[in-house]
Amino acid sequence: MKKYPCLEIDLGKVSHNVAEINKLATAKGIEIIGIIKGFNAIPEIVQAMIKSGLKFLGASRLENIQPLIAAGIKAEMMLIRIPMLHEVDSVVKLTNCSLNSEISVMEALSLAAIKQNKIHDIILMVDLGDLREGILPEEVYDTAKKIIPLKGIHLKGLGVNFDCVSGFQPSVSALNELVILSQKIEKDLGIVLEVVSGGSTSSLGLVVQDTIPSQVNQLRVGEGILLGHSDIFTNLENTFQDAFILSAEIIELKNKESVPTGKIGRNSFGEIPKFQAEGVRKRAILAVGKQDVYPDHLNPLDKKIKIIAASSDHLIIDVTDSTIDYKVGDEIQFIPSYPGILSITTSKYVSLRFI
Predict the structure, then answer these.
(1) What pLDDT, on the 0 to 100 scale, is given for residue 275?
(2) CB of 60 within 8 A of CB of 98?
(3) Catalytic residue of the set 2, 13, 37, 184
(4) Helices then strands, each counted (H, E), the chain
(5) Of 201, 227, 253, at which residue does a domain stop?
(6) How is residue 12 annotated by DSSP?
């Protein structure tokens, strides 16, 4: 018996998406790092990704990595959030590679790697405009010069991030700048950089267009694997967008006015809601709420229903125009967005069902 709310995960569709993206990238000489943060590193999904050909996984939190190791999942691991200084010992122990921008942290990683008799790979992040992590382009040479003598760590390459904070879009010009910086470091310091890490799912658009610089040989992909698209480009050809379906149960179904009576103030989340006067409407309340997922990140499968509002534990929808005769106890299904999957899989109140 299904326990609601329930997230149904089609592992076959996830595997298919991995295989298609991997095929697209491999044809351009690009390695895909499968990002596992977007689904809270659920082991069954991780296994599906590995079985479909991914050899390198990326996590933003060490807490996601330890359970995978305990479960016997074998893959190289990358920490994609800049390491915290206090966790460098665990970073070296649990991961093969990490993204970095602070020399003090890299010095600490060096000491931790020496202590553990390991070589830890570093990808130096360059901020080309998103204003999240990364050193400025003019600082790359001096920073690389400081990293190279450090024992226990290996400067594997340069990386960049796009669109996560400022909406700064991936572009050929930005990636060419990263390539030029990489080539300059190689020439001036007499080293070989193995990796030019050109961003995340959004950069796949340049792969599809066949405009991504040939020197870019790594992308860090999460959303593309889970949903076959990103918000920046249209759906990837021959991928599934419905590998994740959230089902929630109707707990109340009544005809009510579309606009509240009385003075409107702030709701329980400090917002002043706005309402559209549409007369009496048939409204359903579902047993799921903002504690599980924000309504903006849900897309109803029944296109005739409309999400009205949500509190922490209730989602209110308008089913007036639907051709389905819903009853109390029925389920309503939604396709969650990438942030939606992230929050749903983090909620302990949502059950999981694997297909």
Answers:
(1) 80
(2) no
(3) 37
(4) 10, 16
(5) 227
(6) H
Mean pLDDT score, 116-130: 97
Task: Give the pLDDT mean for 194-204.
Answer: 97
Cβ(220)–Cβ(199) below 8 Å: yes
Compute φ and ψ for 280, nearest 5 degrees. Answer: -75, 130
Total structural domains within the chain: 2
Residue 238, in any domain of the structure: no
Residue 259: band (very low, low, confident or very high) from pLDDT cuts 50, 70, 90: confident
In the annotation, is 37 catalytic?
yes
The CATH number of the domain holding residue 160 is 3.20.20.10
Provide the whole-model pTM. 0.94
Q: Quick one: 221 and 257 in the same domain?
A: no
Q: Is residue 2 part of a domain?
A: no
Q: At what angle do helices 43-51 and 11-26 cross, to 10 degrees?
A: 40
| Residue 234 resides in a domain | no
Q: CA of 262: how far to CAs of 106, 259, 265, 282, in Å?
A: 59, 10, 10, 21
Range of the structural domain that residue 270 is part of: 244-354
Give tens-digit pLDDT for 129-188.
999 999 999 999 999 999 999 999 999 999 999 998 888 899 999 999 999 999 999 999
Q: Cα(129)–Cα(133) distance, rounded to whole angstroms?
A: 10
CA 171 from centroid of its chain's CA atoms: 20
Tokens of 195: 């990796």
DSSP 3-state assignment of 252? strand
- The pLDDT, as a whole number, for residue 150 is 98
How many whole angstroms from its chain centre is CA 167?
Answer: 15
Domain finish residue from 170, 193, 227: 227
Question: What's the pLDDT band for 342 if we cut at 50, 70, 90?
Answer: very high
CA distance 314 to 316: 6
